[in-house]
């Protein structure tokens, strides 16, 4: 019987797979991968600037107002035109009446907000931190906040007279409840995991409140501040109707008696601009104090 003497393969070649045509193509035709820089969607340019988009609505509204006034569809007895309102505002500013009225109204609003806001925050902290405080405070404030502030004007006049005190008291009552509700909700909605972490670190009760509870309630507190500022202007309008002798509300009351719709519109615009300025200040505080807290800014 004859045997075939075939050459044995090398020992190291037993573990090396033979190259196939497909593998040769892969190694010879693989293109170089190009790296691309990833840009965050929030930093991409969106065409029209946001300032222009935000100003579009007011510009269109004023344009419509001017068109209706110039075309005769909106008589001056009903509502003065934009050009008349601007001339009246310039005259009031030149005479000094408007700056003095703005300063007095702003002082009343800020003083009432400081008093009412302080009371609301203190009561919210006492009610939010302890169950005893909640049982003693929360039910009373929930009843009082349903009472219309305008209905309290006769009592405020009897208690404080017809000077500055009832006006400031009315603003304080109006602003205390929004801050109380939001600060109380912020304290009760603090993440329980953060509280447990503070207890694990053996924080004292004061340190727990200062470093865990109050920072966690800060977003709600700022929301309450924005709402309280808006309410303060509404209360200011009613408060300045109580035998006022100065302020934006006094100018409005005088213009109403003389059927000066242009001055009334000037006062309304002043109220709106003051509210917009203080809201801008609070939004700036939010960006400063809540820089650590990422939030959705809109799509």
From TrEMBL:
CDD domains: TM_PBP2
Keywords: Cell membrane, Membrane, Transmembrane, Transmembrane helix, Transport
Start and end residues of each ABC transmembrane type-1 domain: 98-282
InterPro entries cross-referenced by the UniProt entry: MetI-like (IPR000515), MetI-like_sf (IPR035906)
Topological type in the membrane: Multi-pass membrane protein
Record's subcellular location: Cell membrane
PROSITE patterns per UniProt: ABC_TM1
Stretch list, region Disordered: 1-20
TM spans (from-to): 109-132, 144-162, 168-187, 199-218, 230-251, 263-285
Claim: Membrane is one of the keywords in the record: yes
One Pfam family recorded for the sequence: BPD_transp_1
Family: Belongs to the binding-protein-dependent transport system permease family.
Record protein name field: ABC transporter permease subunit
Organism field: Comamonas endophytica
């Amino acid at each position: 019987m004859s045997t075939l003497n075939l050459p044995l393969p090398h020992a190291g070649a037993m573990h090396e797979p033979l190259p196939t045509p497909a593998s040769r193509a892969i190694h010879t035709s693989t293109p170089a991968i190009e790296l691309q820089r990833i840009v965050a969607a929030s930093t991409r340019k969106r065409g029209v600037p946001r300032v222009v988009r935000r100003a579009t609505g007011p510009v269109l509204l004023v344009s419509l107002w001017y068109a209706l006034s110039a075309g005769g569809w909106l008589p001056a007895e009903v509502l003065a035109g934009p050009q008349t309102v601007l001339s009246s505002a310039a005259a009031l500013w030149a005479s000094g009446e408007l700056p003095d009225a703005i300063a007095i109204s702003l002082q009343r609003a800020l003083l009432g907000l400081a008093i009412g806001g302080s009371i609301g925050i203190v009561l919210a902290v006492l009610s939010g931190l302890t169950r005893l405080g909640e049982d003693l405070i929360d039910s009373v404030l929930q009843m009082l906040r349903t009472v219309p502030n305008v209905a309290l004007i006769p009592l405020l006049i009897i208690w404080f007279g017809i000077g500055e005190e009832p006006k400031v008291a009315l603003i304080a009552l109006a602003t205390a409840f929004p801050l109380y509700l939001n600060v109380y909700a912020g304290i009760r909605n603090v993440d329980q995991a953060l509280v447990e972490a503070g207890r694990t670190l053996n924080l004292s009760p004061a340190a727990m409140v200062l470093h865990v509870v109050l920072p966690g309630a800060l977003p709600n507190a700022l929301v309450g501040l924005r709402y309280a500022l808006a309410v303060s202007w509404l209360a200011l309008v009613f408060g300045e109707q109580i035998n006022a002798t100065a302020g934006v509300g006094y100018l409005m009351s005088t213009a109403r008696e003389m059927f000066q719709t242009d001055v009334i519109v000037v006062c309304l615009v002043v109220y709106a601009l003051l509210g917009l300025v203080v809201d801008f200040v609070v939004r700036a505080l939010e960006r400063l104090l809540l820089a650590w807290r990422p939030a959705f800014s809109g799509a």
